[in-house]
Write a structure and sequence with these properties.
The protein contains 21 helices and no strands.
Length: 471
């Protein structure tokens, strides 16, 4: 706690001087980060469960997500170019935040309403269309808000500060899904599963919308040269940036990890038999993650962000693998097995708080590196290119997860009792697949070099260029 208090005191002393960030901006950024995270809670973790709850086959549900992500990757470059070419008085990104947030909130609710039709084909079409519109609006909001972190300040210390605050808000948003399994276990006696998810969507949409509107308090301080941004030019510049490509390639491993993410809730519901165990895991692991996150300035002074990410990924992978083999040995559905699941998740969560901040810092520093090499920043397009990969990877991972679940014999129906081999498969997907993905995603960070003397050189020469341009 001491480190965070010192950081807040330092921010208060600096506020208002030399166009430095104010404490109000730090707090608003954290709240807005919480808001956008909350708006994405349901779509990220419960959409597949909702689709199967309204009678859509698990493979078809995976296909809806896959097709929508493909559509999203098509419209992303168009949205990014529109955003990067914006040069209003309020900046490039702020005009696409507050005005679109209410629409995103409404669509977040519509996504979790069962279409009023008995035709399965029409139901799939309706769900796909609503999800596509949601993804389009979310693209404008998401890219704009992500890009803000690259332009709120050019000062490396301020970047570390507001990224820390943002991750605190994001962590709180990430904790919200932990409440859903407990509420689900309580409510399943009184309402249909689909109705439960619809109610949750309304609550999260209202809460997320109110918090995301705080993004209107943010200010853009780093302004890129006023060059006309074109999709082709920005994409070529991106692929010339080898350091950005390294971080981009780390996400390829999510094709494997996505199988584990998609299978996690199914594992707790069907293999363990209690969805609320997932809440227990999230709650207990959230505390050390949050505490370490507040102490992140201490760790970032002693260790490079690159090394923190590598250590976190390898430790998480080791814990997940150990969780699987020990759980299979003692019986993961029993008291001892559940205890092992909680313990290994708890150990893995300790460095996760600072790792999220460290990976974000590595990514943001590549914007300065791009400007240093090419003279352009094109933040929105850069986020889109990386986002396209994430969406294609997520879509492919979700699609593969649906196929693997069906191949393993998984059926989500009240009158179907899953066999033990199917339950074991869910455990395998949940643990080992994530472990493999984490190991693979750590490899590119061994070759990342925008730190130490290199980073200092980039920052120094950029400052000299900006001063010369202002004279």
């Amino acid at each position: 706690m001491g480190s965070l208090r010192e950081k807040i005191a330092s921010i208060k002393n600096q506020s208002g001087g030399g166009d430095r960030m104010t404490l109000k901006e730090y707090v608003s950024y954290a709240i807005a980060h919480f808001g956008f995270g909350t708006l994405g809670v349901m779509s990220g973790g419960y959409l597949m469960l909702f689709y199967t709850a309204i009678g859509i086959d698990v493979a078809a549900a995976g296909s809806i997500v896959a097709v929508t992500k493909i559509w999203d990757s098509i419209n992303d470059p168009i949205c990014a170019t529109i955003i990067d070419n914006g040069r209003g008085k309020r900046g490039k990104f702020r005009p696409f935040l507050a005005p679109l947030v209410p629409f995103l909130a409404v669509l977040s609710v519509l996504m979790f309403l069962d279409p009023p039709t008995d035709s399965l084909r029409l139901k799939i079409i309706a769900c796909s269309l609503v999800y596509m519109v949601w993804e389009t609006i979310n693209t404008f909001c998401g890219i704009s808000f992500q890009s803000m972190q690259a332009v709120m300040s050019a000062d490396l210390n301020e970047r570390s500060n507001y990224i820390t605050f943002a991750n605190l808000g994001g962590k709180l948003a990430g904790a919200l899904p932990g409440l859903i399994p407990v509420a689900f276990d309580i409510s399943k006696k009184y309402m249909q599963e689909s109705s439960f998810y619809s109610i949750c969507a309304v609550i999260f949409a209202v809460l997320g919308c109110a918090a995301a509107l705080f993004s209107g308090n943010l200010k853009e301080r780093v302004r890129a040269p006023k060059n006309k941004q074109r999709i082709y030019h920005n994409f070529v510049a991106f692929f010339k940036n080898k350091q950005m490509l390294l971080l981009w390639s780390a996400n390829l491993a999510n094709i494997i990890s996505a199988v584990g993410w998609t299978s996690s809730s199914f594992f707790y519901i069907h293999s363990i038999g209690k969805f609320s165990v997932q809440t227990l895991v999230w709650t207990l692991t959230g505390t050390p993650t949050f505490l370490v996150m507040m102490l992140s300035p201490i760790f970032l002074k002693r260790f490079s962000p690159r090394k923190i990410v590598i250590f976190n990924n390898l430790l998480n992978a080791a814990c997940l693998a150990a969780m699987y083999f020990s759980g299979m040995a003692v019986g993961y559905a029993g008291t001892a097995g559940i205890a092992l699941i909680v313990i290994f998740n708890l150990i893995a969560s300790i460095p996760s708080g600072v790792s999220g901040i460290a990976s974000n810092i590595c990514f943001i520093n590549t914007f300065d590196y791009t400007e240093w090499k090419t003279g352009d920043r094109a933040e929105a397009t850069t986020f889109v290119v990386t986002g396209i990969l994430n969406k294609w990877v997520g879509a492919l991972g979700t699609f593969v997860a649906g196929l693997l679940l069906k191949k393993a014999g998984f059926v989500d129906a009240p009158d179907v009792i899953l066999s033990q081999p199917v339950k074991d498969s869910l455990f395998l997907f949940y643990s080992v697949f994530q472990a493999i993905g984490l190991v693979l995603s750590a490899i590119p960070y061994f070759f990342y070099k925008i730190e130490g003397p290199m980073l200092e050189r980039v920052k120094r020469e950029l400052d000299e260029r900006r001063v010369s341009a202002a004279e």
